[in-house]
Amino acid sequence: MLDLITHSAEHVVAMKAGGVVTGSELQRAIDAVEAAKQAHPRVSLVVEIDGLRWLTLSALLKDLGYGLTQLGDLKHYHRAAVVTDQEWVKHIAHLEEQLFKSVEIRTFPKGDHATAMAWAAELPRGAHESPEEDGYHGA
User: Fold this and answer.
1) 10-residue stretch averages of pLDDT, the chain, 139 residues long
2) pTM of the entire predicted model
3) For residues 78 and 104, is the Cβ–Cβ distance under 8 A?
4) Which of 26, 48, 86, 138 has its CA 20 to 30 A from that of 110?
């Protein structure tokens, strides 16, 4: 199961995964990420993983294929918050953080879901869509 979760920041794509994730569920998440990338210069992700057992073969292939296409597009990503208590997921997130230095990746325990959502919503100075959000209030 992979479900999209609403987030108050439009540049954040949030989702929850658990059990078995199918290719069609993963495609909905990919479509949401692509739509956010079209609408915003920087996109952040929140992925809550609880009881994830595996991905179907089609989901695994889709995940690998999409991931490879994103290697040249990392400039569009700002942050990825991974919310989980599963140790193996934390290890993978840490490895990805080392591999993809341009994207901030942080893990949060399940109890810190709100903190993870707030952290993902933050944009770097100069990346906001209006000057006021970057601290400019006129001359």
Assistant:
1) 95 96 95 96 95 89 89 92 94 90 93 96 72 48
2) 0.84
3) yes
4) 26
Given the structure tokens 């949030």, which residue do they identify?
14
Q: Quick one: pLDDT at residue 72? A: 86
| The token pair that represents 127 in the structure block | 């990346």
Residue 87: its H or E element: helix 87-99
Q: Which residues contact 4 (CB under 8 A, 6 or more apart)?
A: 13, 14, 15, 28, 29, 32
- Sole residue written with tokens 């108050």: 8
Q: Which residues contact 84 (CB under 8 A, 6 or more apart)?
A: 48, 49, 50, 90, 107, 108, 109, 110
Q: What is the pLDDT of residue 134?
A: 52
